[in-house]
Structure prediction request, 514 residues.
Amino acid sequence: MAAPRINMRKLKDALRLKLEGGQSHQQIATALGISKGVVTKYVGLAVAAGLDWPTVAAMDEAALERQLLSAPRPSDIYAQADYGRIHQELRRKGMTLALLWEEYCAQTGDEHDPEHPVKPWRYSQFCENYRQFANRLKRSMRQVHRAGEKLFIDYAGPTVALTNGQRANIFVAAMGASGYCFALATPAQTACDWLGATARALTFFGGVPQLIVPDNPRALVKSANRYEPQLNDTVLDFARHYGCSVLPARAYHPQDKAKVELSVQLVERWILARLRKIQFATIDDVNDAMAPLLEYLNQRAFQKLPGCRASVFKEIDAPALMALPLQAWEWAVFKTVRVHIDSHIEFEAHRYSVPHALVGMALELRITASAVEVVHRGQRVASHRRCAHPGGFTTVAEHLPDRHQAQAQWTPERLIHWGERVGVACALTVRRMLERQRHPEHAYRACLGLLSLSKRYGDARLEAACVLACALGTSKYTHIRDILVNRRDLLQASTTPEWTSPSHAHVRGADYYQ
Prediction:
């Protein structure tokens, strides 16, 4: 380890006592508390530089340091290490300075030249030289990013105006180790835009990192707690699909995602600034214009490190990424529903079948643009193609109960028997409801709704309404309900086909006129 330099104030005092006072080296060393050899060294440097005391007195400490203590040049007998490459290699998982020092020593031995022999630095000096190099990169706390570990995502502040009056929002993603960045224009900053753009970014990178780090947008985070942030169900489903984790940065701490903050700045300078005078009609036009500029940005050489973002990504990040799933991610929402007695659940007024053993249980629906998945305790128990037909049924025959099971609780015969308790017309209406459907189970809810009308209107009125419905040729629950609501059953019961006069003593009768 090199000895620390002498304090410039003591150095100036030593020169004053020697050049002006004429004292001996031992006297100066005793007076200033330094060694005699140090006094000899710096007095010799001053004499060699041709300095006298008036010249030294007129110089400030910085000028005197430059005059006497110019930056030492690395010794020619030591092989110089490529600390820029070493800084990048340390981002690999499991890489250490000790291993890199051993490789440096081996490389120095392989490149040995008898005419100009050099030797490697000792390990302690090697580490010190690297620390000095790393401290010169940036005066802030440096975060160490492992290869393929983190992907930082954010939206840029500036937006791009469209000719239709709307604005395109710019999504930016950056890999932690290499800084390889991705940019995409989206219509807004909804959860669908965030996750859709992130999925596009993962496809662009060709792999999946271990951790995705956003800030705390309300579109993704239900509760922006500093210690245990709560993500919404769709974000958790996204993470499960790609086999990674989503960990929001601390709120109001942009330094936690400095990589993407820098990438946002670069996108604003090298992409958005060049597109400021161009008029765009659609979001796709913006993305088409950004594509070549994004490639140029990733190919730009680093100022202090070797290579560029694209080359470092190809060398360090890309091999460490996890593979993309075979199936593309789809936007999904979640909803809790309960299975009805007809072995169906309802979503958007359409009914989908589930195994009849789950009747009465609360299940979770995962709804995508094309499918409805039914999940029970983390296991998918049914999957159907999504249908927008209200009032319709999507039924798998295997989900329905066996007709021959004596212990089956809900059967058509039981519903018909309930209708017979009300009246003949009610039982006939229930029978017609069951016969009208392809599967009798599809009519279970309508039959129960019909029979429940007796609780509000009574058995007599329900039977009268069913008589009128049979006369009109209908057996729909809604028609019978409307008959009761409009009191048409009462009007039908009070109407007689013909009026007859009662007998009376004052009435002479037809025989009187004969």
The CA atoms of residues 170 and 327 lie 26 Å apart. The radius of gyration is 43 Å. The domain at 150-320 is CATH 3.30.420.10 (Nucleotidyltransferase; domain 5).
